[in-house]
Amino acid sequence: MLNFTQARTLSIAGAALPAYGVDGLPVFAPVRLRGTEAIGRIDLCHYVVTLRTDDAYAFSPSVTANLDLDKIVGTEVTVSIQLEGKGRFVPGLVGGAGLGNVGAGTREITGLVTEARVAGEDRHSILYELELRPWLYRTTLTQDCRIFQDMSVVEITEAVLAKYPYSVDKRLAGAFDGLYPKRDVQRQAFESDWAFLQRLWEEWGIWWWFEHEDGHQRLVLCDTMGGHHPHGAAYETLRYLSPDGKRIDEEHIHALSVTSRLTSGSVTVVDYDYTRPRANLTVTEEHPRRTASADGEIYDWGDHSQPLAGAQGISGEPNDAEREARHLARVQLEAKRCAGLRANGSGNLRGLTVGRTFALTGYPQQAANREYVVVSCLLDIEEVGDRTGAGRAYRCDAQFELLPANEPFRLERSVSKPVLSGPEKAIVVGPEGQEVWTDQYGRVKVQFAWDRQGRLDEQSGIWLRVLSPWQGADLGATFLPRIGHEVAVLHYFGDPDLPVISGSPVNAFRQPTLDLPANQAVAVWRGREFQGTASGHVALDDTQGQIQTQIVSDAGTSLLALGNIRRILKKKGRADARGKGFDLRTDDWGVVRALKGLFVLTDGEPGAPGHAKEAREAVGRLTRARELQESLSELAQQHEAQQRDADQSEVAKSIKTRNDSIKGNPPRAVDDFPELAERDIVLAGPAGISLASERTAHVASNEDVAITSGRHVGFAVGHSLFASVSNAFTLFVHKAGMALVAAAGKVRIEAQADGIDLRAKRSVNVESVTESIELHAAKEIVLHAGNTQVRISDQGYTVHTVGDHTVHAGRHQTEGPKGIGGGFPPFPKSGPGQLEVLRHYVTDAPVDKSAFAVTDSLGVKHAGMLDASGRAVVSGLAPGSVRVAYERDPHDPWDLSSYLEQARWRPGGVAWYPPTFNAIQN
């Protein structure tokens, strides 16, 4: 016969329960235990145990009714249930066939006392009720807000439960082999520890239940059906027997129904990752049950792709988005699917334990006789004993729900992620001594105002993008909040794991850019120098009657002000007025560059009614100047001062070319503005243009320089006037004559390589006022006057005349030969010369930007680059022949300008040698 370890079916023990005598005998005896347990449902895990004082001790009600309940609440107690096992001992049977009470023992239920109350009295005994819950219930009594970065669901679980001194058994060997992927950011958003963990467990497919042993309760976390262990010998196989069937000597199931339900057949999850904006992050998992109409689809936001927003930022390892998405979709699908086939039953099963498995036998439906997992169980055991405790009659009823053990179990989502509807406050953080800490996405790190674990440094907070009204694709405006700035943070879909910075407000330490309300009419964008105090700003001053737009940089005190020019100073804002119009100034260098052309005009009408390049007045003045150039050059050519159709005529043609370019071709459409067809600079002012320099002024042109004046051109030179001309120098005066006067010093006219022609229509007067006139010639001097000639040479002095030869002298004397030569100073030798280098295609198109090298007669190499017209002037060359070498044509050989006609095939593989030739220096 079996000796049981306790006299009653139910017993209770707990360190805080009152005891009697030196042996510590329990004062209370449990008379009823009722409650439920369910996998993964904290609200369905609780028991109520009813206690009464033991009749054998005859305690006074005045004593037993006044226990201190506060000492019991919050402590652990263990209720033990005596299990009889199954079968009666039959002597004489072989082996274990005749054994009785197989699987007998004790089942424990340990829980935390969450409520204790006086429930009344029963005859001479006081009744108490204790409500027991698993220790996980303590996690429902908390609320926290914190961020977990670069942690998996298992690591987060360990971090949250670390403050609870209880046992956790992790049976995680399913997806990812128990090594769950890390998430960039997972936030507990003012949730209880239980709500936060429960929703993570539900999302990732982890479920839980409690096991009880040796007076302790153990939380079991599981993600695979293999984590469910079978019952002991008494319950590893349970028999179904209908209520009207024959009586058997074992606990059994007397009622059971098997239900098949219609469930969803597929789950599709989608996500967006801004680090991979074009990636297809949609994943579908399908596994419909074998019922009709099982094709229902669930479409959900997956949040599976991680944009490396955790503590490591972009230096972290990208996650396997597709694999994780498939797992998350499969978890949702299996949560729906596992509810499709369930069994519900009841029986006198005091030892049926949630989370354990058993095999069913004896059910009429053969397919139902299989292995099951106990999903939930409602247990009600009532102890009925006499005053001596000898009787052990009791009532036991267990109602339960079962899942076939070959069907994956998942928890339905019962806890929703919090929805954050408004902005949150945060502070931008980063390394000490830095102004901004950002990455390639313009993200900054922030620490939320509620974060009590952060240290306001680069190790705190999370990486967030910054919203702007318009930015991205190399467009828009990007403003990065600086370290220490307060920012407002919103959340996509209200999801606490998807934050983004929406703006930056002011606070007591970060005041507005300008003093307010004094500058309330001024809108300003201002930056500040890193590690400094200098700044720049763009300001729109909307003060009535004084509007202006201003761009300012403290670097070089540079400024562009438009409108009513008024100084805007740092925090003070609007200061002294400085004028109207526009002001462009700097203390440093200034550059105005326009690649296609530039107008600087003071022509026009108020309000600018014409288009921007309107320049009729300037073109008219330039046209009149060109006509004057043409008419005067024609006069010079008529008077043989210049060659016809050359010399100054070429200058007039250049002026016309430039004028035509400035004017442009006639417009072809309303929005066609043809002015400045080439890269000209035009300066025009109806009143005048003045140029002044304290030192040197320089005008340079590779081709022609034309100066045209309708009245006078005056040169006033404080020291000397020099003109060095490479070829010809011609002066032509049409009417009033020409004067060349030296008030002091010598006038010298030389022709070092040719003669000098002096010609006048009337008299030529050569006069020395105070000294003599000397004529020198190396060979001879010939004087002509009408038919008379006087020839003076080394051969003598000869006079030819048809008239009289009269000599007047005070005395005549003739002596022997004697020569007196005047002598001539040597002409200077030519110094370094210059060479004009040209390179054109056969179509006369210039080969611009072509490199060349000129080697002079002394072997000195002069290298350079041709200009846009295919021309260059090389100076400093030694006299004599030179060698010119061009580098390879830098242009595409397929360019049509390289050919006389369009090529029919693209040339290739043709050897090329730089052309060389000798040129005589000019």
TrEMBL record:
Enumerate the spans annotated as DUF2345 domain.
Answer: 671-818
Primary location class:
secreted
Query: Where does the record place the Gp5/Type VI secretion system Vgr protein OB-fold domain?
Result: 439-504
Q: Record's superkingdom?
A: Bacteria
Annotated Pfam families: DUF2345 (PF10106), Phage_base_V (PF04717), Phage_GPD (PF05954), T6SS_Vgr (PF13296)
List the SUPFAM superfamilies hit by this protein, alphabetically: gp5 N-terminal domain-like, Phage tail proteins
Localization per record:
Secreted
Keywords from UniProt, A to Z, are: Secreted
Q: Kindly give the InterPro entries that the UniProt entry links to this protein.
A: Gp5/Vgr_OB, T6SS_Rhs_Vgr_dom, T6SS_RhsGE_Vgr_subset, T6SS_Vgr_RhsGE, T6SS_VgrG/RHS, Vgr_OB-fold_dom_sf, VgrG2_DUF2345
Region of interest (Disordered), ranges: 635-670
Any one annotated GO CC term: extracellular region
> Which residue intervals define the domain Putative type VI secretion system Rhs element associated Vgr in the entry?
528-636
- Fetch the NCBIfam families from UniProt: vgr_GE, VI_Rhs_Vgr
Q: Which family does it belong to?
A: Belongs to the VgrG protein family.
Q: What's the protein name?
A: Putative type VI secretion system Vgr family protein
Q: What organism does the record attribute this protein to?
A: Burkholderia plantarii
